[in-house]
Specification:
Strand content: 5-15%
Strand order of the largest sheet: 3-2-1-4-5-6-7
Helix content: 25-40%
Largest sheet: 7 strands, parallel
Number of helices: 9
Number of strands: 7
Shape: globular
Distance between the termini: 29 Å
Structural class: alpha/beta
Radius of gyration: 18 Å
C-alpha cells in the first residue's frame, strides 16, 4: 500500500490495515525524520505492517501521526546537527515509552541536504553536514547497542543517495557525507551481525525522488532532470517516496534476513551497482 499523495491532514484519513499483512506486528522501529517526504512514507508503511514507531522530527508537527497510526507512535524532537543532545533524547524516550522493549528496526533517514558549488563551502558548513549525515547516525547506533534486538529481527537501514556514486554538481558535502554512511553500513554489517543473532545492516541509495530537495532545485536543473529521467530504464518518470518505502519494508522483514552490507539503488535502474 502506498500513502504517497494522501492528505493525512484530512480528518477522515485513517490507515486501514484490513488487507495489509502484519508481518512486522509488535516490532519497534525508530525512524529519523518521520514527518516529511521519504521519512513520512516509511513511517506510515512500517506502521501499516504493524510496527510500533518512535519518530523524530525537527520542524513539521507530528501530532497528526499520533492520530492516524494504528499502533503506538511516539514523537521525539531531535536535531541531527546536535547529536550530543538529540541522541540521549531519543534513548530517554525509548526507555520511558517502551520500558524493557528492544529496538528491532532503525531507519537513519533524516539528513541535511544543502546545495551549492564548492566555491561556497566553508569548514563550518562541511562540519554541519557531516555531523548530521554521518556522525549522528553513528552515535545513534552506538547509543542503541544495549537496546537492539538479539532475536535475529534486528535491522539497520540507512538512507543514502545515488548521487554518492554518480557524482552531481553542487552536492560536495551531501554526497560525501552519504558516502561515509555507506562505508559505515558495510562496517556495521560485519561488526553487529553475530552479536545480535543475525542483525542485518543495509543502505538504500534513492535516485531523484519528488521531495523537498527536488522542489528546491533551480528551474533549469529541474528541466534538465525531467528530460534525463525520460531515459530511466524502468519507467520514464521521477521516483516517489513510495518506491523507497516499499524496499525499506522488505529489508525490515524476515524475508530479507540474508541480505546485509549492501547498498541497494532505488532509482528505476539509473544506477546499477555490481
Amino acid at each position: 500500500m502506498s500513502f504517497q499523495g494522501c492528505n493525512i491532514s484530512d480528518p477522515a484519513f485513517r490507515i486501514d490495515t484490513t488487507n495489509i499483512p502484519q508481518y512486522l506486528a509488535g516490532r519497534l522501529a525508530i525512524v529519523t525524520g518521520c514527518t516529511r517526504g521519504i521519512g513520512l512514507e516509511i513511517t506510515l508503511t512500517l506502521a501499516s505492517h504493524g510496527c510500533l514507531i518512535i519518530g523524530t522530527y525537527l520542524k513539521t508537527d507530528p501530532t497528526r501521526l499520533s492520530e492516524i497510526i494504528p499502533t503506538k507512535f511516539v514523537e521525539v524532537h531531535a536535531d541531527i546537527r546536535t547529536p550530543s543532545v538529540s541522541v540521549p533524547t531519543i534513548t530517554t524516550a525509548l526507555k520511558k515509552e517502551f520500558p524493557g522493549k528492544t529496538v528491532d528496526i532503525l531507519v537513519n533517514n533524516a539528513a541535511e541536504a544543502p546545495l551549492g558549488p564548492i566555491s561556497c563551502l566553508s569548514a563550518d558548513s562541511l562540519s554541519t553536514v557531516f555531523t548530521a549525515n554521518s556522525v549522528f547516525p553513528a552515535l545513534l547506533v552506538q547509543a542503541l547497542l544495549p537496546h537492539f534486538s538479539k532475536s535475529g529481527a534486528g535491522r539497520i537501514i540507512n538512507i543514502t543517495s545515488e548521487g554518492t556514486h554518480l557524482g552531481r554538481p553542487n552536492t560536495t558535502a551531501y554526497s560525501a557525507s552519504k558516502a561515509a554512511l555507506e562505508s559505515m553500513t558495510r562496517t556495521w554489517s560485519k561488526e553487529l551481525g553475530h552479536l545480535y543473532g543475525g542483525m542485518t545492516v543495509n543502505a538504500l541509495a534513492p535516485g531523484m525522488i519528488e521531495t523537498d530537495l527536488w522542489r528546491r532545485l533551480p528551474d533549469a536543473r529541474k528541466e534538465y532532470w525531467v528530460e534525463k529521467l525520460k531515459d530511466t530504464p524502468v519507467q520514464p518518470r521521477i521516483g516517489g517516496a513510495k518506491d523507497v518505502a516499499g524496499v525499506v519494508a522488505f529489508l525490515a522483514s524476515d524475508q530479507a534476513g540474508w541480505v546485509s552490507g549492501q547498498v541497494l539503488a532505488v532509482g528505476g535502474g539509473n544506477l546499477m551497482i555490481v
